[in-house]
């Protein structure tokens, strides 16, 4: 209990630090930081439809981030969520394109299965390399992101290219309306159900199965778990596959939901924001939901700032970067300080 | 006690705290020049802390130290060295990849900007020869036998005309004959006017070498540089152990302080007829980083017996445990658990047959220090079922609470990290997980290392209780007093082979000879 409380307070402290730092930067850049933060809150939550837009951005982030959280929990720094997200989107689009014309009841589930499998496979090879030959998964998953990005560019400019498309951004043909799971606003009961089911299943897996306990022990000390007779290899592969599958699912949701097509280079920072969310959430599923809403709000505000408030949307990038800067500093000093303060607060009536 | 010369080293009210833990409490102590001084006490008594304070590795929270009557700037290794104090660490500190000559140069004051390996060999060969070190000076430290490594450490410590040499637990890694050779060397140093301070914990060794004895207990000084001649083994044992430990068994008490090789009471020959819980036949493995390959190892452990494994560390004990666990493949031979052939099976299968392991490295192989107590405790049970089995954390917590209470683990709540337990409590946690009614074979690898006296006695009782319940116990230890006290049978390992298999009454001379190959 106490450890969780400390984690929450620590995340909040870091976010406050980051926001103060951003405020200073805004002031130096000649903007009123008060205006800036006011507009961000307006854009994210207060304006009409703001909350719905924040949710629209939060849901794919949440799906990817719980997967990232699981692989971090198991001790694998799989930072390839972006590539797995893209591969999921590509695989789902390929499936939808090749089944085009069939009833939605067949096409949509088949495409989702393909998207999930695509993401999982894009996580499988770094996982196998890591567990078979000790290759650093941070490097391989990172490199995988670049390959996936180029693959996405290739399919959207080549095999899947929409010939009627013009302009700089290439994309696939739009999906038939019958296959879409939401309109272009990107929020529908189907998408919400997907997010809730993913959240519940992952919560159960992590908190209510032997796998969850053993995997998080293995993440902290694989040697000890091996001496207990566990097959650490299997735990590792499972964590890679699940995190890849979820990123692939998020990519599929983007294609079948708000985008309605596969767009070259879409959401280029999705995977990294998801990593940030998993870290802010201290890898817990509940925390990930809150974190996703926060960062989803920022994403929504990024669209609102330049249009409605005449402020640069780069402000959001600065906030993201500032939080990233602080969140990895998990100093035990700070934990002890927080622990001490909690203890004192409980003693004083 | 000439009184005219200032003492070699004097501590005034030295206090060291680590957080809330008081490692040394107002220690006042003087060591006279040119003698051999022993500092004794149980693990955690503060001996090593005292040695480190003198060497400048730890800055005390309060107090002063003077060397030859001159005050020493505290907490600074360089100042301590300049004053002539050198420390040889318990776990050696020379870079393993260095050649001997390079390691010597590394410790020297005047270490120049450039050197050739031939120049180094020339420079140090005389110095090393004066210590009777015959090894090739270009040999790497890691390839040296443990006794030679220690000699090189001592030679390294004395390159700069040190006048006070502190050896921290120098005998812990040595065979009985190695201890004899070390003491011979210490007497030689004393003859050359060097003040030697030995941190020890065995009474037999203390009385064999020391001129004065100082006893620490729980960070407090119990006896300050008392002449050794005035002490009897039993006096010293009382001072070291104290009266509040609850060790009732006289043999255990003697074994705890290494007062004397204990008598051995029971032999359990009747157990031999049963199917062995562990049977290795002619097992061989490939060599690995932890020591030589096993060669032709044949070993049986029967239900209801404790088989001790003696040997100088690094003679295949770790590989033996890993081979039994299935973490190292057997190249040849067969391994049976409870009569079933398990050669080639994985550890999970073996554990389901009743294999329990108290591993060598409690803090890495035994526990996940940043995970909670209940997770550490539950893992064995969780792995017995399929991984997608539904669990109730609250139930696991209360089960672990119950088990830890039964094993007398001192903790605050089941959610605290295992790293917050003391060594003794952490080991009890491991026992509470491993040693249950299902355990048919308990492998206990150095189970009392780093434990205080109460916890050590507890571990022995737990192993005896497991044996009395009908489990077989394989106890690997480098402490012969421990092995002699609780083993029903003893094997000796040397270079990956079993070179002796002896039954009580054990003879220190015979086992010691087998450990070094002298008996073969």
Describe it:
The complex is a heterodimer of chains A (349) and B (520). Chain A is mainly α and 349 residues long. Chain A contains 14 helices and no strands. With 520 residues, chain B is α/β, with parallel strands linked by helices. Chain B is built from 18 helices and 20 strands. In chain B, the strands form four sheets. Chain B has a six-stranded mixed β-sheet with strand order 6-7-8-3-9-10, with helices on both faces. A six-stranded mixed β-sheet of chain B has the order 16-17-18-13-19-20, sandwiched between helices. In chain B, helix 16 (453-468) links the parallel strand 17 (441-445) and strand 18 (472-476). The longest helix of chain B is centred in the middle third of the chain and has 16 residues, at 176-191. The two termini of chain B are 47 Å apart. At the A-B interface, helix 8 and helix 9 of A face helix 11, helix 12 and helix 13 of B.
What is this structure's SSE topology?
The complex is a heterodimer of chains A (349) and B (520).
Chain A: H1 2-28, H2 33-46, H3 50-73, H4 81-98, H5 104-133, H6 137-157, H7 189-208, H8 210-220, H9 222-227, H10 232-259, H11 270-280, H12 285-309, H13 314-327, H14 332-347
Helix pairs in contact in A: 1-2, 1-13, 1-14, 2-3, 2-12, 3-7, 3-10, 3-11, 3-12, 4-5, 4-6, 4-10, 4-11, 5-6, 5-10, 7-8, 8-10, 11-12, 11-13, 12-13
Chain B: E1 9-18, E2 21-31, E3 36-40, H1 47-55, E4 62-67, E5 70-71, H2 77-82, E6 85-88, H3 100-107, H4 117-129, H5 146-157, E7 164-168, H6 176-191, E8 195-200, H7 203-209, E9 212-217, E10 220-227, H8 233-241, H9 250-257, E11 278-285, E12 297-301, E13 306-310, H10 317-325, E14 330-337, E15 340-341, H11 347-352, E16 355-358, H12 362-366, H13 373-384, H14 393-406, H15 423-434, E17 441-445, H16 453-468, E18 472-476, H17 480-486, E19 489-494, E20 497-502, H18 508-516
Parallel strand pairs in B: 3-8, 3-9, 6-7, 7-8, 13-18, 13-19, 16-17, 17-18
Antiparallel strand pairs in B: 1-2, 1-4, 4-5, 9-10, 11-12, 11-14, 14-15, 19-20
């Amino acid at each position: 209990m106490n450890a969780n409380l400390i984690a929450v307070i620590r995340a909040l402290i870091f976010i406050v630090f980051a926001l103060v730092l951003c405020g200073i930067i805004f002031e130096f850049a000649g903007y009123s930081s008060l205006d800036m933060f006011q507009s961000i809150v307006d854009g994210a939550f207060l304006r009409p439809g703001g909350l719905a837009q924040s949710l629209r951005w939060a849901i794919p982030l949440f799906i990817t981030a719980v997967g990232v959280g699981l692989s971090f929990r198991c001790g694998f720094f799989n930072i390839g969520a972006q590539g797995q997200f893209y591969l999921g989107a590509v695989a789902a689009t390929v499936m939808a394109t090749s089944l085009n014309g069939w009833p939605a009841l067949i096409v949509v589930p088949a495409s989702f299965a393909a998207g999930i499998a695509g993401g999982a496979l894009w996580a499988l090879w770094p996982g196998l390399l890591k567990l078979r030959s000790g290759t650093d998964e941070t490097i391989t998953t990172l490199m995988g992101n670049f390959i996936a990005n180029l693959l996405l560019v290739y399919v959207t400019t080549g095999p899947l290219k929409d010939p009627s498309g013009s302009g700089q951004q290439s994309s696939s043909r739009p999906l038939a309306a019958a296959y879409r799971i939401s309109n272009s606003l990107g929020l529908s009961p189907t998408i919400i159900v997907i997010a809730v089911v993913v959240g519940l299943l992952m919560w159960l897996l992590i908190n209510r199965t032997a796998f969850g306990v053993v995997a998080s022990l293995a993440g902290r000390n694989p040697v000890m778990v091996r001496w207990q007779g566990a097959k650490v290899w299997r735990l590792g592969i499972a964590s890679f596959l699940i995190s890849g599958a979820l990123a692939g699912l998020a990519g599929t949701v983007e294609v079948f939901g708000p985008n309605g097509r596969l767009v070259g280079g879409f959401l280029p920072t999705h995977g990294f924001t998801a990593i940030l969310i998993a870290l802010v959430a201290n890898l817990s599923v509940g925390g990930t939901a809150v974190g996703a809403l926060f960062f989803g709000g920022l994403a929504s505000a990024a669209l609102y700032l330049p249009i409605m408030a005449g402020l640069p949307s780069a402000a959001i990038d600065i906030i993201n970067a500032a939080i990233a800067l602080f969140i990895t500093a998990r100093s035990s000093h700070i934990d002890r300080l927080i622990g001490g303060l909690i203890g004192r607060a409980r003693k004083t009536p | 006690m000439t009184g005219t010369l200032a003492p070699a080293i004097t501590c005034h009210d030295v206090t060291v705290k680590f957080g809330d833990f008081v490692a040394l409490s107002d220690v006042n102590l003087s060591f006279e020049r040119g003698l051999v001084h022993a500092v004794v006490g149980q693990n955690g008594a503060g001996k090593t802390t005292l040695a480190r304070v003198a060497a400048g590795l730890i800055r005390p929270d309060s107090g002063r130290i003077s060397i030859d009557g001159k005050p020493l700037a505290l907490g600074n290794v360089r100042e301590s060295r300049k004053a002539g104090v050198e420390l040889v660490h318990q776990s050696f500190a020379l870079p393993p990849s260095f050649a001997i000559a390079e390691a010597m140069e590394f410790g020297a004051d005047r270490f120049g900007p450039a050197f050739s390996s031939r120049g180094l060999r020339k420079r140090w060969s005389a110095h090393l020869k004066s210590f009777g070190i015959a090894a090739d000076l270009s040999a790497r430290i890691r390839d040296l036998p443990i006794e030679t490594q220690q000699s090189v450490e001592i030679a390294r410590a004395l390159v700069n005309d040190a006048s006070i040499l502190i050896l921290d637990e120098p005998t812990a890694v040595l065979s009985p004959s190695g201890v004899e050779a070390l003491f011979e060397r210490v007497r030689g140093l004393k003859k050359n006017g060097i003040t030697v301070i030995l941190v020890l914990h065995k009474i037999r060794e203390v009385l064999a070498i020391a001129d004065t004895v100082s006893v620490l207990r729980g960070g407090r000084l119990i006896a300050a540089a008392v002449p050794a001649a005035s002490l009897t083994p039993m006096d010293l044992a009382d001072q070291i152990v104290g009266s509040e430990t609850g060790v009732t068994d006289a043999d255990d008490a003697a074994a705890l302080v290494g007062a004397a090789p204990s008598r051995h009471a029971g032999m359990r020959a009747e157990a031999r007829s049963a199917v062995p819980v562990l049977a290795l036949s002619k097992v061989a493995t490939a060599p690995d980083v932890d020591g030589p390959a096993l060669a032709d190892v044949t070993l049986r452990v029967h239900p209801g017996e404790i088989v001790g494994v003696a040997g100088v560390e690094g003679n295949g004990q770790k590989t033996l445990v890993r081979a039994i666990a299935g973490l190292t493949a057997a190249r040849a031979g067969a391994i049976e658990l409870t009569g079933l052939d398990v050669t080639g099976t994985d550890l999970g299968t073996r554990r389901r047959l009743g294999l329990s392991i108290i591993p060598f490295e409690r803090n890495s192989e035994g526990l996940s220090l940043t995970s909670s107590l209940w997770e550490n405790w539950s893992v064995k049970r969780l792995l017995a079922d399929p991984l997608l089995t539904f669990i109730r954390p609250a139930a696991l917590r209360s089960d672990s609470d119950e088990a830890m209470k039964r094993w007398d683990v001192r903790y605050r709540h089941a959610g605290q990290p295992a790293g917050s337990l003391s060594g003794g409590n952490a080991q009890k946690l491991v026992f509470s997980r491993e040693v249950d009614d299902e355990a048919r074979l308990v492998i206990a690898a150095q189970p009392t290392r780093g434990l205080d006296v109460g916890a050590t006695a507890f571990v022995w009782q737990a192993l005896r209780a497991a044996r009395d319940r009908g489990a077989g116990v394989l106890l690997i230890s480098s402490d012969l007093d421990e092995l002699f006290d609780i083993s029903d049978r003893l094997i000796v390992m040397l270079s990956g082979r079993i070179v002796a298999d002896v039954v009580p009454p054990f003879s220190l001379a015979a086992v010691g000879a087998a450990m070094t190959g002298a008996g073969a």
